Amino acid sequence: MAKFHDLNIPFTTDKKQLQKLIGSAANVGYEVVAVNHVVRDKKGLKNAPGPVELQNIDIANLKVKGRSLQQLSRVTLILKDNTTFARMSTDNAIQSYDLLAVQPTTDKLFLLACTQLEVDIISLDFTQRLPFFMKYHPVRAAQDRGVHFEIIYTPAINNTTARRNIIGNAHALVAVNNGKNVIISSQAERVMEIRSPYDVANLGLLFGLSESQCKNALSRNCRALLMHAISRKSVRSTLSVRRIEELAPKECWKVEANDPENIVKQRKTSEEDDGDVGRPKKKRKR
């Protein structure tokens, strides 16, 4: 069974409150959590802190099931212009975090985040009406690069206006990307705001996701996101391997084209054609 993830636990200087948030997430069923540091300018940027120390009582439910809790660090950069965080890939402080997220505030910055920036998550402020439209080509480019889009559910619980905007913006996103590369996170600042994975999966139906996409937004998509974060730091490219049975009918030609027997036949026919070109044509007798 896939692990459930909550990749947005807000960082706070109150260590006890942070312990309660992480412990509560673990007790309701999350096995992977990420402490999120929101940075608005370079002055607030610091190296990633270590994991939060938890007591046995905080992760008692996981221990009963024979599982453990994995803590990750995440930084979310608020993009206001192109020069605020110009060199993300070479900044040691930014690269010290496990996950890198950005929140673009304009149409041009959204296009830049989708097509060029080496990030893991694009997190938009869905509590308000977006100042731009999410177009198909930038979103598709982000999908092809392995970037995921985040939907935060806590404001939808606390505020009616925010709920209406989140549902509308989430439906606009799902209409563009067909529910792919979407994760759902809490961003809960209080313990009472954290919901179990199954409650969040049901809440995802309001965002326009199907039942399977809701579960993937808490498990499989998050796991793919973590793999993307690891590859971002280690390699520039990845290799995807699939079984022949999983290929779509329109992609089967790739297997036939790479079949050794077909390659030999193609070489023979090409050599015969080349030989025929050099031979003089015989004149027909009248």
Largest sheet: 7 strands, parallel
Order of helices and strands: EHEHEHEHEHEHHEHHHHH
- The level of helicity is 40-55%
| Average pLDDT, all residues | 83
Which outline best applies? globular
Number of helices: 12
In terms of per-residue confidence, which ranges show pLDDT below 50 for 5 or more consecutive residues? none
Query: Strand content of the residues, in percent?
Result: 5-15%
Question: What is the C-alpha radius of gyration, as a whole number of Å?
Answer: 25 Å
Strand order of the largest sheet: 1-2-3-4-5-6-7
Structural class: alpha/beta
The end-to-end distance, rounded to whole angstroms, is: 81 Å
Number of strands: 7
